[in-house]
Specification:
heterodimer; A: alpha/beta; Rossmann fold; four-stranded antiparallel beta sheet; 11 helices; globular; B: alpha/beta; eight-stranded mixed beta sheet
């Protein structure tokens, strides 16, 4: 649980009531019969140099949120306020392609699959140099110098520039993806499951690399992951998502030690932990059933169908995301009253 | 410890490809005991899946078992022992064992479930293949196993197709199919890797419960050390085709002996760990299978590398106290390659070198 709050800068990204709906159409006339509400009213703010984790299970909308932030998708509603280096503020949600250009190079993305995200017919020079070329930053000799510098930065040898991705292992490919993301000197990096596909021994290298780069270039990360142990290690704050909504948002340490939303409690208790002695001690909360269909979300609290503490009010009313302690937000009617259990600290009785 | 069910001794499975020989499994030795869970853990390419496929003689060409034994103890009073590695891959004998005595489940349920048949017809087929029962009886048994794996409305699920089920439900259906013939050993190859944590918790819970009730042994293949700590009784750690360390789950996690096991355990971020800072990473990456290092397969990434020894000598298994077996020269075994210095399981290995 690294970092301390005093070192962060100003709010660099302020997401307000972000919504991304995918229409469901039916029949020959493609009649609009409903929406998959992949992201449904998400709000959070990120400070400079901070790492915010977005966690949740598949279908919770964490990747869609990330894709909206880099504007790979055009949000249905809401605002994404981004403060540029010169202090001016733009709303990424409504910019058109031409206006996005200068901003795009400042917010970059790293993808999960290092095998699918690199074009196999391009050399590393093409892959890492492309953003430089597209954004008119460098060409020819200067471009090669910059690519060499970037490769060195991520721990690859500059001579590899002429090789193709197939010659590299998963970890090395992920380094290439990181070099490409860094090419335009971004300020924010959205890392979507950036270490999930990697082997344990290589994963640690990449996590260390991401942390080093953050410190060196004052980067801000939005770290999307389903792996709570990695999130705990790298993130300063964490937002837990469920069915398109942020259901809890807090400082990493607080969220893991004292969750206020039953879903977070269940999620934490379900993580298998590498210590056989915890087996007897722990109380695992096994949730019943599956995540509901986001095209047909339940009424009231989205989690009420699986919540072990469900009450009548949960079925009727949507709990707002409210501040239950300074900086700790939870969307639960009974936040603060349930006495939920977080994780025990290791090495502490 | 329970009676011995399966003994894998120095198993070697090679793939003869156009580009060269890939030694996917190259010295895997472990035992599975009745009613116990053995976790085989390792990173991608360490040969853990090929080991499982070799046990059931399911290795596809150009792969072939080139050495070692896979001894299945028939049990139930008989002293009969079959060496599965010697059976013909398409022969009658192994087909009688597959599915009935040893069942297997996979990471991706769709790789073992048919998309064009209902769940019920697939389970009924499996039951009728191994038992002489009527269609109705088999159907009743199918409903029973589906109930057993907590599939709601089992009668309806019987007539469902796989695409109508969620990921967790498919995994349950596959487990139901594997259990339908009451196997004595279930081999599970990363059965929860593709699932979300809360679904994974459900499936792990279910598998442990079934194991307790049915007294079956499990060989559970995974790369997730958290899952290992959760369910294993014994652990076998594999690296580049070789079982480098094995022992009880507590011993492996609390006093790992092999430098690879030690490094692996240090490189995972732990939930609830107070210490912040950099993770301990293992340098380099798993070598290309065509370009394996000589000697100890881990020597080029090892912090305890001893030049002139680790890169020359393939470490023999060394037995430590408490049934631990480790293949690392730090624990001896690297003397003159004569029979006396060699661990008992590995006698033949040296003659071939």
């Amino acid at each position: 649980m690294a970092g301390n709050v005093g070192t962060y800068g100003e709010v660099i990204l302020d997401v307000r009531d972000l919504r991304m709906y995918f229409p469901i159409t039916r029949g020959f006339l493609r009649r609009h019969v409903g929406d998959v509400k992949a992201v449904d009213g998400v709000s959070f703010a990120v400070r400079q140099r901070e790492t915010l984790g977005l966690v949740g299970e598949s279908g919770c909308g964490k990747t869609t949120t990330g894709r909206c932030l880099v504007r790979a998708l055009e949000p249905t509603g809401g605002q994404i306020l981004y403060r540029r280096a010169d202090g001016s503020c733009v709303d990424l949600a409504t910019l058109d392609r031409r206006e996005l250009r200068p901003v795009w190079r400042e917010i970059r993305m790293i993808f999960q699959d290092p095998y699918l995200s690199l074009n196999p017919r391009w050399t590393l020079r093409d892959i890492v140099g492309e953003p430089l070329k597209v954004n008119g930053i460098a060409r020819g000799r200067a471009l090669e110098d910059r690519v060499a510098e970037l490769l060195r930065l991520v721990g690859l040898r500059p001579e590899y520039m002429r090789r193709y991705p197939h010659a590299f292992s998963g970890g090395e490919r992920q380094r290439v993806g990181i070099a490409r993301a860094l090419a335009t000197n971004p300020r924010i990096i959205v890392a979507d499951e950036a270490v999930s596909a990697l082997d344990v021994s290589v994963r640690a290298q990449i996590i260390n690399l991401l942390e080093d780069l953050r410190d060196r270039f004052d980067l801000t990360y939005i770290f999307i992951s389903h792996d709570l142990s990695v999130v705990q290690h790298i993130c300063n704050r964490v937002a837990v998502m469920y069915l398109g909504k942020v259901v809890e948002l807090a400082d990493t340490r607080r969220l893991f030690l004292a969750p206020q939303m039953p879903y977070t409690e269940a999620l934490l208790s379900a993580v298998p932990r590498p210590d056989p002695d915890l087996r007897a001690k722990r109380r695992r909360i096994v949730l019943q059933g599956d995540v509901p269909d986001p095209a047909d979300a339940p009424s009231g609290c989205p989690f009420h169908t699986r919540c072990p503490y469900v009450q009548e009010v949960c079925r009727r009313e949507v709990p707002p995301l409210r501040e239950v302690a300074p900086g700790h937000f939870a969307a639960c009617h009974f936040a603060g009253q349930l006495g939920l259990r977080g994780i025990e600290l290791e090495g502490v009785a | 410890m329970g009676e011995l069910l399966l003994e894998v001794k120095d198993l070697r499975t090679y793939f003869y490809t156009g580009e060269g020989v890939v030694r996917s499994v190259d010295g895997a030795t472990f035992d599975v005991h009745r009613g116990r869970t053995l976790c085989v853990v390792g990173e991608s390419g360490c040969g853990k899946s090929v080991t499982a496929l070799s046990i059931l003689q399911l290795v596809q060409r150009p792969g072939r078992i080139v050495g070692g034994e896979v001894l299945l103890h028939r049990g139930e009073g008989s002293q009969e022992v079959v060496d599965l590695a010697k059976l013909k891959p398409h022969g009658r004998e192994i087909r009688r064992i597959r599915g009935k005595e040893i069942a297997m489940i996979f990471q991706e349920p769709m790789s073992s479930l048919s998309p064009v048949h209902t769940i019920g017809s697939q389970i009924v087929e499996a039951i009728r293949l191994h038992f002489e029962v009527s269609r109705e009886e088999a159907r009743a048994r199918a409903i029973e196993v589906l109930r057993r794996v907590n599939i709601p409305r089992a009668e309806r699920a019987l007539d469902a197709y796989t695409f109508e089920l969620s990921g967790g439900m498919r995994q349950r259906a596959m487990i139901a199919m594997a259990l339908s013939c009451r196997p004595r050993l279930l081999i599970a190859d990363e059965p929860t890797t593709a699932l979300d944590v809360t679904t994974q918790a459900q499936i792990l819970e279910l598998m442990q419960e079934l194991q307790r009730d049915l007294g079956m042994a499990m060989m559970f293949i995974t790369h997730d050390l958290g899952v290992v700590a959760e369910i294993a009784d014994e652990v076998a750690v594999m690296y580049l085709g070789m079982v480098v360390e094995r022992g009880g789950v507590r011993e492996i996690f609390h006093s790992p002996k092999h430098p690879y096991t030690q490094a692996l355990l240090k490189s995972v971020p732990r939930l609830g760990e107070v210490r912040a800072g950099r993770l301990h990473a293992i340098r380099g990456s798993v070598p290309n299978p065509y370009n394996r290092p000589g000697g100890c397969p881990f020597h080029d990434r090892c912090d305890s590398f001893m030049p002139g020894r680790c890169d020359r000598i393939v470490p023999p298994p060394v037995e430590l106290e408490g049934g631990r077996v480790v293949r690392c020269l730090l624990y001896g075994g690297g003397e003159e390659p004569d029979q006396s210095a060699v661990g008992k399981e590995d006698g033949r290995r040296w003659q071939g070198m």
